Amino acid sequence: MASFDECLKNMIDADVISRDEARELGATFERLRTRHAAGMSPEAAEAAAREDMVKRLTAEASHKKRVALLTIAAQRRITKDLTEFRDARGDADIGLAAIDHLEHYGRAGFSSVEGRRKAILADAHARLEGFMHHYRTTFKSGRRMNKLSLDNVVRERAGEATGDAQAKAFSDAIENVFEDLRQRFNGAGGAIRKLDRYILPQAHNRLALLKRGREQWMADILPRLDPDRMVHPLTGDPVPAAELRGMLSHVYDSVVEEGWNERTPSAVPMGRGALHNQRADARFLVFRTADDWLAYQREYGNADVFATVMNHVNGMSRDIAAMEVLGPNPNATISWMKQMVQKEAALAEAGKPSLMKAGRYPGKDVRSTASTTLAEIDGLWEQLRGGIGDQDQKLAAVFSGARNFLTSALLGGAVLPSMASDPVMLASAKKFLGLPAANTYWSIAKQMRPASKHEAVAAGLINEEAMHVLRDEARYAGSLSGPEWTKWLPDRIITWQGLKAWTRAAKHSFGREMQAFLGQRLEKAWEDLPPEWRRASEGYGMGAAEWAIMRRAAAQDIEGARFLRPHDIAALDDPRARELALRWSEMVLQETEYAVPSGTARGRAAVLGGTKAGSWRGEFWRSAAMFKSFGVSVTMLQGARLAAEAGAGRGARGATFAAATLGALTLAGAFGLWLRDLAAGRDPQKPDNPKFWIAAMLQGGGLGIFGDFLFADYSRYGNSFGATLAGPMVSLGEDIWKLTGGQALKVLKREETNLSEESIRMLRRYTPGGSLWYLRAAYNRVFLDTLQHWTDPKANQKFKRQAQGLMRERQQGFWWAPGEMTPDRPPMFGGR
Q: Which of 24, 251, 360, 580 is 20 to 30 A from 504 via CA?
């Protein structure tokens, strides 16, 4: 019999495998032969190694075959969706259909990656509601409650009895969620083996590994590992002790080199391998005890157990959604869909029948439409994958930390326009679906109760207050990414002003009303449901046949009110029930974006233009997008809905809806401007100025910062229009220059400097928490104006000019005038 080395050489000569593959197989075989060498003859050791290799290669071949079949099935389903898709006008549009596979809000008739991610995440949140509530953060400090008992949860996960019944219950809940996610991941094409007493995923801090070095890291981790339970993900073979050091060295290289030890430079973007091959690696390291896992996380990973659990849930939800919609290798499917778009564009240019539609982007022909579509797909996929591919992590950390600082300084009053506009958006979204549109404020207020929050999360609505540990979007602010210590203050500012609680209550209000609307109508036939509702439902792939299944669900009953929750549908004895439950959850969560806008992935992609975090260009665009991507998302989302109405021949309904919404939002924007004026110590503006109503319209649409330019050359943050367009980071740079270089130039020109005035102006703008709506006036009047009195002999004159200028330009006075320690009078609501 030929030796294994001879077999490899013959396969290379026959062009069956490459030399790289032969080297990898040879190294694996040598490790197996070495493992069997002790106590065996060389011939017996080689025979045993051959048997192990056959077992391993058979398992891998079986897995690859299954992945191939799932990929083919996914491409067949997607081909059907791409070819049968019709836009609101009834026209084929393969480009829009491809985009809608990534994210859509009720127009495609099939699931999107983003919608499914939310549905899977909401289901996990429902089952972890008790865990999330017990370990919630406090309002004042953001400190995690009951944090010490989290170690008991870890010990229970490791099979170590603690006598803590609550920790055991939480451990069981985590196990149920993790196991369900594992099975779903494997069902979509993954290969994660079930491990006995698996504790939690481990995080690796790359910088910590680099700082201590390979040998010190291996010396620290080896005694903490349990090699007897470390196995090959496909075959389940144990890892020989003799091979462990070599495998750990490979793990070290993978972490510090960010995967480049396993890759050669190519055109494939970083971090875009097949998802079915990922996730199992994170389970390779198995720790002996809970204390070993905790000690490693403190030294080399993330010591926050709560964040570890929630990050794993979020990451698995994201990956499962991508695989269930796009197949086991979503990146390959994305490339394939782009090729489909290019093929149809070429057919259209040749004058042949085609699924490509020009004109979706104003003024673009077929070729330009195809090119823009491909760029949009890439940018949207980048956002859905979490901005993978930071080019310079240190640069990204510096800029994201700076953006977090600016959020804490500038976004202290965001809840005021939200309180004005959200009830309007809620009523508008409900009316569009055929729901009763009254009592929106009362509906939000009811969701402020702790009991309502528990019910909503348990009913399958996402726990917004747990999302900050998931690198998710913070409303208006964008992503609170970057070093953990930089996230605390902006998160607290968003919490302290009430924006987090308000947003959560508003979203839960809308979601629960959707569940109640359908729960109260389970006896009705499909034809008896409002036509608006039926159209929206069909946009998520639920029609008469699906409604017939949903009607059999046992809805939740609370004091005579019935709510149709996703898990009520999933509990049905029907093979289609679980998929239908996900569709229903997807509809509720995606429609909530119309009611309580928070920002869409497509909106972020449009603003960021596919740029990478950690590059100078990417960081500039992320600065420019601060506080603007929200407004862009609102405009794109509502614009697409109105265009769809017009395209479907319901132009009058769309126009009526648009006019009513715009009018109501303008009134809400006016209310928001008045609230902002009051918070700044000013009387509410008089409503007889046309500029005020234009600013109110912009404010109501989420673009309120630009409304200020209708009244002056400077934004509410005191910078020029150009600097504001470039973003707060550039505005900060402009202000720093005025304070430093600008003063130096004045000295050189022998002009009078104003260092104290510029310093106080910096404090007014960039003091974290200084913009909190209930502290802003007092902070400016009592502290900063007093400081200006002490440092500027002309302070009184400047304060008077400020008041006179406001009266002259806007006929608006101050109820708490600049320079005064206490208010002069109550606010005047009619002007002077």
A: 580
CB contact set of 73 (below 8 Å; sequence gap of 6+):
327
10 Å Cβ neighbour count for 801?
Answer: 12
pLDDT in tens, 80-114: 999 999 988 889 999 999 999 999 999 899 999 99
User: Percent helix, strand, coil in the chain (nearest 5)?
Assistant: 65, 0, 30
Which residues contact residue 610 at a Cβ distance below 8 angstroms, ignoring those fewer than 6 apart? 375, 378, 379, 382
**Which DSSP state fits 540?**
T
Between the alpha carbon of residue 143 and those of residues 68, 146, 235, 310, 449, the distances in Å are 47, 9, 43, 17, 21
In 3D, which of 715, 437, 448 has the Cα closest to residue 594? 437
Q: Calculate the dihedral angle through the C-alpha atoms of 514, 515, 516, 519, rounding to the nearest 10 degrees.
A: 130
The DSSP annotation for 93-133 comes to -HHHHHHHTT--SSSSSS--HHHHHHHHHHHHHHHTHHHHH
CB 602 within 8 A of CB 520: no
Q: Torsion-angle region of residue 327: left (phi > 0), alpha (psi -120 to 50) or beta?
A: left
For residue 548, being part of any structural domain is answered with no
- Enumerate the β-bridge partners of residue 473: 479
Say which DSSP state 557 is in.
Answer: E
Is the CA virtual torsion 785, 787, 789, 792 positive or negative?
Answer: negative
The DSSP element (H or E) to which 733 belongs, if any, is helix 728-739
Residue 189 contacts residue 276 (beta carbons within 8 Å): yes
| Cβ(699)–Cβ(830) below 8 Å | no
| Residue-level length of the chain | 832
Question: What tokens does 480 get?
Answer: 């609170």
**Residue 700 CB neighbours (<10 A):** 29
Nearest to 638 by CA among 609, 669, 665: 665
CA distance 112 to 505: 25
Range of the domain at 750: 656-810
Per the CB < 8 A criterion, the answer to whether 509 and 426 are in contact is: yes
Single out the residue in 36, 64, 92 at which a domain terminates: 64
Angle at 720 between CA 719 and CA 726, to 5 degrees: 90
Residue 3 lies inside a defined structural domain of this protein: yes
Comparing CA positions, the residue from 425, 517, 563, 567 lying closest to residue 120 is 567
Please indicate, yes or no, if residue 793 is contained in any of the structural domains.
Answer: yes
Instruction: Calculate the CA 362 to chain-centre distance.
Output: 29
Please identify, among 64, 85, 111, the residue that sits at the C-terminal boundary of a domain.
Answer: 64
**Lowest-confidence segment of 34-38, 510-514, 526-530, 736-740 by average pLDDT:** 34-38
The pLDDT tens digits for 255-311 are: 887 543 443 333 333 334 455 555 555 567 889 999 999 999 999 988 889 999 998
The single-letter code of the amino acid at 439 is: N
CA distance 687 to 671: 11
The answer to whether 134 touches 165, Cβ cutoff 8 Å, is: no
Give the number of domains in the chain. Answer: 2
CB atoms within 10 A of CB 545: 10
Judge contact between 475 and 503, C-beta under 8 A: yes
Would residue 375 count as lying in a domain?
no
Distances (CA, A) of 751 to 483, 510, 743, 747: 42, 59, 9, 6
Secondary structure (DSSP) of 328-397: S-HHHHHHHHHHHHHHHHHHHHTTS--S--TTSSTT--HHHHHHHHHHHHHHHHHHHTTS---S-HHHHH
3-state SS of 35-73? HHHCCCCHHHHHHHHHHHHHHHHHHHHHHHHHHHHHHHH
In three-state secondary structure terms, 413 is coil
